[in-house]
Structures are given as C-alpha cells and as structure tokens.
Design goal:
With about 425 residues, this protein is of the alpha+beta class. It is about 35% helix and about 10% strand. The strands form 6 sheets. It has a two-stranded parallel sheet with strand order 1-5. A hairpin with a 4-residue loop joins strand 9 (about 270-275) and strand 10 (about 280-285). Helix 1 runs antiparallel to helix 13 and helix 2 packs across helix 13. About 45% of the residues are buried.
Length: about 425
C-alpha cells in the first residue's frame, strides 16, 4: 500500500508527487449500486507536518476546502448514469423533502433576494424546481448538480456528491437545516440509505437494505462484501496528529480512507487497492482522485473539534469527573494523552468494543479486524455513541461501561463523569 508509517512524515509537496506516481490497477469489482454517500465520510486522520512555506500550506488548505465542499471526483457517472438520481431529484425531491432526509442548505450561498423571498413565503418549497434553483447556486451541501435549459425548461442533467454531504452540517441560523456550514461536523440527520433507496436502478431487496440504515448511519463495506451493518457517520474534525483514523484503524493517515471513500463509496474516477481485503476497485480510466488527496487531507486536519457551548456542563462536576476518568472509571487507560486516544500506539480486539458482540461484526469486515479508541474531543456534539450508535446519550455510554466492565461507579461518580465528557 502507498500509506506506510513513514509517509506521515513526508511534507505535503513531496506527498503530492508520490500520489501522482502511485500505481493504478484493475477494473471495477462488482458493480454495486450500493456505492453510497460518503463521506463519509471520511472518518480519517493523519499528520499535520506542513511544508516549509506557510503560504504554500495555506494554499493547500484552501485547495482542500474547495475539494471537500465541491469536488465530486467525477462520480456523476455513478449517481447519474447508474443510479439515475438526477431523474429522482427532478421529479420528486422538493426542498422540504430534501430537508426531511437530512440534506442541508448553505444560507451563505443564497442571494439576498432569495433569502427575502423565502422569508416572505414567495418561494414554493414544495416544488422540485426550487431544488434545481438551489443546485444552480451550489447551495445544497454536498450535492453538485448541472442544471441546463433544455427546450426552455430548467433540467437537471448531471448530479454527484462531495465529502461535505456526510461530513458537514449547518448551524440552523436561518431555519432548521438552513444555515452556515459547519465543516467536519457529522451530519447525523442525513439518511443516506433512504436517499439511495429512491434510485430506480435498485430492486426491491436493495431498496429495503438501504432503507434499513436510518438517519446518521452508513455502511462503507456494504457494496464491497454484501453484508448490511451500518455505522454512525463519524466527525472529520479533531484528527490532527491521529494516525489510525477510522473506527477500525485501517490506514495510517487520512489520505488512505479518503481514497477508499472517494472511489469505492462515492464512485469517483480512480483506483483503490487494499490487499488485506483482496480489494481492487477501479472506476474509469482517468484518475480524478489522487492529485486532490494532499489538499483534502490538509484541510481536514485543520478542522478543530468544537468547544462545548458555554453553560452546557457543570464545571465543578466536570472537575470531579476528570478524577473519575483517571481513576475508578479507568477511561484514561485507553482514552489517553492530549488526543484522548491510544490509537497511535495500538488497536484493540473486537471484544474490547462496547458494541460487540454484533452480527456481522464490523471489525471482522475491516482490514485490521480490530478497533481503535475513539478520540473524545468534541464528543458532546455527535450523539449517538459507539460505532453502531447503540448509546443514545453520554449517560448511556457511562452506564454501559460501568455494567460491562463491572466498575461499580456510584451514581454521583457516573453523573460527574458525564459532565466531564461534556466538557471535552
């Protein structure tokens, strides 16, 4: 694989050259109408070592921001030609429907005249034509559409998705689902499976599988191994300095997972190989992914975990909870150091996961067959918890650990530990 441990220490300028000369291999493994909304994705990590030139690094981050928000890697060929999602959107997806399945609208992309028209009710949010107008403005987060005038009628001719679809949300400052972008925040309202299930290219069984996922979940292995066990969409912030970046720690930096997601899940034009899974996926003959990986990684590593809102936790209780975390709660055994994870040192057997045993085991479908310790910075922001979303609240997390590990925490210790987690 291209992502050796030493690669993390290679400056971005040299990494860019290395990616461009990386090997490309064989044709697409199994068609898979299951390629989905990624982003997923990208639950990733890596190194923040910058080029010597600060201006170059700033330019690389800006380039990556544009890639993260607006680049489809040529996946229109999948979402349009294979899944026919342009037909579905044009016929049946009005803005209210889009918002109901968790899609978000960037209020800063809306001209003042449109903002006023929406506020006064002059815009019909029940018509698919309004969705096409929003796509023209690049205002639907993570969705790129080409709208052309055909025989005098606005027509959606191509559609694709970007990283931001799953790994951005908005602050709801205009209305629910409409506001300023929050890049790196997982969109736990998004229902990728429900969206994919709208495709006319799927049979009844395929539609049922995707529809079973639910909001905030996605299965990045489903179209590879045919099994169905989604995981929660993880945050793409707070990853600077973390090498094992996915739930199962498959790669040593963000670029590994970004490539996998861009090609194998989003349907981008390029190649991904993973010998440990005997996996080779090649889409098309042109590589539209590799050259963009350094910038994409730089931007994601610049995204900091959000600080908890003022007044959202009890300060005194959080201080007591820190003592519990480092003592009776044993949290710091694995959630260690300033990154609150031991992922740079080791991975853990599936039996250590609070979501295991499960069937099928998510770890068993990965390259490592293990789990990494999830970083805790910003944990207040993205319920539900554990990779399967089985803990709805931080109180549920503490309760599960207390029970499974026989910690014997008192009610006060458990409550204080929750406040500490909310403070991170």
């Amino acid at each position: 694989m291209r992502n050796s441990g030493s690669e993390e220490r290679v400056p971005a300028r040299r990494r860019r050259i290395a990616y461009r000369t990386a090997d490309v291999v064989r044709p697409l493994a199994a068609a898979g109408v299951g390629v989905a909304i990624a982003t997923f994705v990208a639950a990733c990590g890596g190194s923040s070592e910058a080029p010597a030139d600060a201006a170059e690094q700033a330019a690389l981050i800006a380039e990556g921001k544009n890639t993260f928000r607006f680049d489809t890697f040529g996946n229109e060929s999948f979402w349009t030609d294979t899944l026919k999602m342009h037909e579905v959107i044009a016929a049946a997806v009005d803005p209210l429907t889009a918002l109901s399945v968790g899609l978000k609208v960037d209020s800063e992309a809306l001209p003042a005249s449109l903002v006023e028209a929406i506020q006064t009710g002059a815009v019909d949010l029940t018509k698919p034509g309004t969705t096409l107008a929003l796509l023209r403005l690049d205002a639907i987060v993570g969705v790129k559409g080409t709208v052309e005038t055909v025989n005098g009628v606005d027509t959606l001719t191509r559609v694709g998705i970007t990283c931001a679809l799953c790994h951005s949300t908005v602050d709801d400052s205009f209305a629910r689902g409409i506001g300023k972008r929050l890049d790196g925040w997982p969109n736990r309202d998004l229902d990728p499976g429900a969206i994919i299930a709208l495709s006319p290219a799927l049979d009844a069984d395929g539609k049922a599988s995707y529809a079973s996922w639910g909001p905030g979940k996605f299965d990045p292995r489903h179209n590879i191994d045919g099994k169905n066990k989604p995981v929660v969409i993880p945050p793409a912030y707070g990853l600077d300095g973390i090498h094992s970046v996915t739930f199962t720690g498959d790669g040593t930096e963000l670029a590994y997972w970004n490539r996998y997601v861009a090609v194998a899940e989003m349907g981008g034009q390029g190649t991904v190989t993973e010998p440990r899974l005997n996996l080779v996926v090649q889409n098309g003959i042109e590589d539209l992914v590799t050259a963009k990986l350094p910038g994409l990684q730089a931007y994601q590593l610049s995204l900091k975990a959000p600080a908890p809102p003022a007044g959202s936790y009890d300060v005194d209780a959080a201080l007591r909870g820190k003592v519990v975390s480092e003592g009776a709660g044993t949290c710091s055994t694995c959630h260690s150091g300033p990154l609150f994870t031991d992922a740079n040192i080791r991975l853990h057997p599936a039996s250590d996961s609070m979501a295991e045993p499960e069937s099928p085991s998510y770890a068993s479908r990965s390259a490592t067959k293990q789990y990494r310790t999830t970083p805790l910075k910003g944990i207040w922001q993205h319920p539900p918890y554990f990779h399967d979303g089985s803990a709805a609240t931080l109180a549920d997390v503490v309760r599960t650990y207390d029970t499974r590990r026989s910690l014997g925490l008192t009610a006060q210790q458990a409550a204080d530990l929750v406040e500490y987690l909310k403070s991170l």
